[in-house]
């Protein structure tokens, strides 16, 4: 028993010695694997053989940018004001890029300040619209920080639009202004005027002028040059025209200026001289306003044309003095009722000799506007909306600039102040 016990003991001891190197090898292998995982493998492209780790090259700056980008309004905000609410700024760095656009990709123009600390939009925002903001800033070490946010502008309860003349695609005379009448009185005219851009080709300065708080006209210093192409861009959507009342209009209108035609009525001589592109076409006998109802002096623009129309004195303060249901070849010169029109009821002898009207300028015509040989028909057929009619030598005052499309009766200095 004892011999068997003693002789077996070394075998057990020898077995333990043989197991020790295997365990050590296993532990060393695990350690090497750990070291390899932490240090990378040059052969696999994870290192450069110089001790570089996965975080980057030795000595590379891996700190976060110190620049902080702030966007107002906060991310996800709604019912945001269309003006004054959008602001982007940077602290401990400078803005390098700011992009703001709606979900359709329409960009909002803006500028980064000279010191890089802030970005502000050049224009108001549209109402009921979702916008995305992407802003990037760099700190003094050139490290970038970016911010992306979204917000939605308010849905207005009260809105306004502008009705305008001329219409898109029109061809007009050289005196035609762009005239816009607003559906609500405007108390913030600067913002509204800034949102309407009028340009001309060939280029010429075009300025706006307000008549009261609901009408805005644009014109150049002198009559348009023939052939000028004019573009009017309305960007009123989101403009706060008065407290709580926002514009709801975005569109582009284009029109063309035709040939130049300026006709001069001499009330004392009872004539009208028609000049087309600098050449006299014809001098026509006329009958202007009688001594009790003289015709306004001044530059007037044809704003409407009617082959036949009704004229009722009661609508312009003359009571029941006249009501003619079929006035031929009528062209409006003022809002207050001044027309240049055909006259079939007067004796032919008055034209060129006597002023007999209630303030209009009358030309000989035939009832029904059916005779193209009459002076009234001849002039009507050769006239455009926007043509100029100048009245002189009438014993009356000059027409007011806002009485019709007649802003040409203001000097350029008055117009632009």
TrEMBL record:
Natural source organism: Streptomyces crystallinus
Keyword Cell wall biogenesis/degradation carried by entry: yes
Keywords of the record: Acyltransferase, Cell shape, Cell wall biogenesis/degradation, Peptidoglycan synthesis, Transferase
Xref: Gene3D superfamilies: 2.60.40.3710, 2.60.40.3780, L,D-transpeptidase catalytic domain-like
Record-given protein name: Ig-like domain-containing protein
Cross-referenced Pfam families: Big_10, YkuD
Active site residues per record: 341, 360
UniProt pathway: Cell wall biogenesis; peptidoglycan biosynthesis
Domain called L,D-TPase catalytic: residue spans: 261-392
Top-level taxon: Bacteria
